[in-house]
Amino acid sequence: MSFRNRLIEAGRLVPLGTPGLYGRDGTFEAVAAGLEALITQLGAGERTETLRLPPGMSMAAFARTGYMRNFPQLAGTVHCFCGDERAHRQLVRQLECSEDWTAEQRASEVALVPASCYPVYGLVAARGPLPEGGAVVDVAAWCFRHEPSDDPMRQQMFRMREYVRLGTPDQAIGYRNAWVERGQAMARRLGLNSAVDIANDPFFGRAGRVLASGQRDQALKLELLIPVGDDQEQGACMSFNAHRDSFGHSWGLRTADGAVAHTACVGFGIERLTLALFSQHGLDPADWPPPVRAALHL
Ligand code: 5GP
Ligand code: ZN
User: Fold this and answer.
1) Are 284 and 7 in contact (CB under 8 A)?
2) How does residue 59 score in pLDDT terms, banded at 50, 70 and 90?
3) How far is CA 212 from CA 164, 198, 204, 207, 221, in A?
4) What are the pLDDT digits (tens) for 142-165?
5) Burial class of residue 77 in the structure, from the number of CB atoms within 10 Å of its CB (0-12 exposed, 13-18 middle, 19+ buried)
6) Phi then psi for 24, rounded to 5 degrees?
7) Which of 28, 112, 139, 158 has most ligand 1 atoms within 8 Å of CB, for mutation?
8) What is the C-alpha to C-alpha distance for residues 273 and 171, in angstroms, rounded to an integer?
């Protein structure tokens, strides 16, 4: 039986009738909570501010992230009914006839968060220059990416935990690089085989190919890959990103001495890490190696 079907049969994932959307059971959530706590513990070294976000962000902030320039195919915006009573009567008729009823849906002031760090830069920039030593933000949100797929490792809505570093060029890249080591140590502690490799994001279109090769050539994005599922395909479960001064420029972020701030982030895919554990150790955490259970407080 496929990994997906085994997850569904065991109840870990509950398919919600469209590709890439699932409910999770209590066992899945216990593992996810253990991962969240372990990530908190591993990040406890730096002075860190915690921020938990809803799955939506303001359309104005979203427009400024550059996401529609780079990944328009993945973005999701919230649309709502804004018609009058006549339009509503038509909508109800269309629903009753199982016709398309979405013509009167209009863009609202909310976009779905594509990566949990995106709302952070504007929030921090609005406070003025960074404090001496810069800042570290521990952020999490449910994220959306329109990539319908039956692969449980590619969900349309998933939790992304991130640490975001804002400061000097050395602080940003130093933090990113430290997490490449910590991320691998975390995988080892969880009994997961992993490898770090240079990644490239799926930038849109022909211009995107140039962006992707720049990202690759400068090793701006690294990923922690873990073999998961039927074919033990490498799944990207963490990413380690150097943005240099791009967000600093677009949000007017400054260091304490007035220079344009550099930023970096490390992202943890909570669903992917949880699935990697089920793939590696089995669908019942009661059977997992005791040190792995202990690391996750299971
Ligand atoms: P990135 O911003 O680097 O693309 O994503 C950060 C992390 O979020 C990835 O390393 C991965 O763990 C998780 N992630 C990215 N895309 C998906 C997806 O389609 N489904 C799930 N479940 N997790 C994802
Ligand atoms: Zn990020």
Assistant:
1) no
2) very high
3) 22, 11, 9, 9, 10
4) 999 999 999 999 999 999 999 999
5) middle
6) -125, 150
7) 158
8) 27
38's tokens: 């372990």
Closest ligand 1 atom number to CA of residue 147: 19
Q: Please give the single-letter amino acid code of residue 13.
A: L
Question: What is the spatial distance between Cα 114 and Cα 72, in angstroms, rounded to a whole number?
Answer: 11
203-253 pLDDT, tens digit per residue, is 999 989 989 998 998 989 999 999 999 999 999 999 999 999 999 999 999
Q: Place 46 in a pLDDT band, splitting at 50, 70 and 90.
A: confident
Q: Are 81 and 95 in contact (CB under 8 A)?
A: no
Q: Which residue from 223, 207, 229 is spatially nearest to 269, judged by alpha carbons?
A: 223
Q: Is the pTM of this model over 0.85?
A: yes
**Backbone φ/ψ region at 11: left (φ over 0), alpha (ψ -120 to 50), beta:** left
DSSP label of 171: H
Pocket of ligand 1 (CB under 6 A): 115, 145, 147, 154-155, 158, 160, 223, 236-239, 267, 269, 271-272
The two beta strands, 221-228 and 195-198, are antiparallel
Residue 41 identity (one-letter amino acid): Q
DSSP 188-200: HHTT---EEEE--
* CA pair distance 16, 22, nearest whole angstrom: 5
String of DSSP letters for 24-75: E-HHHHHHHHHHHHHHHHHTTTS--EEEE--SEEEHHHHHHTTHHHH-TTT-
**Nearest residue to 121 via CA among 179, 183, 197, 66:** 66
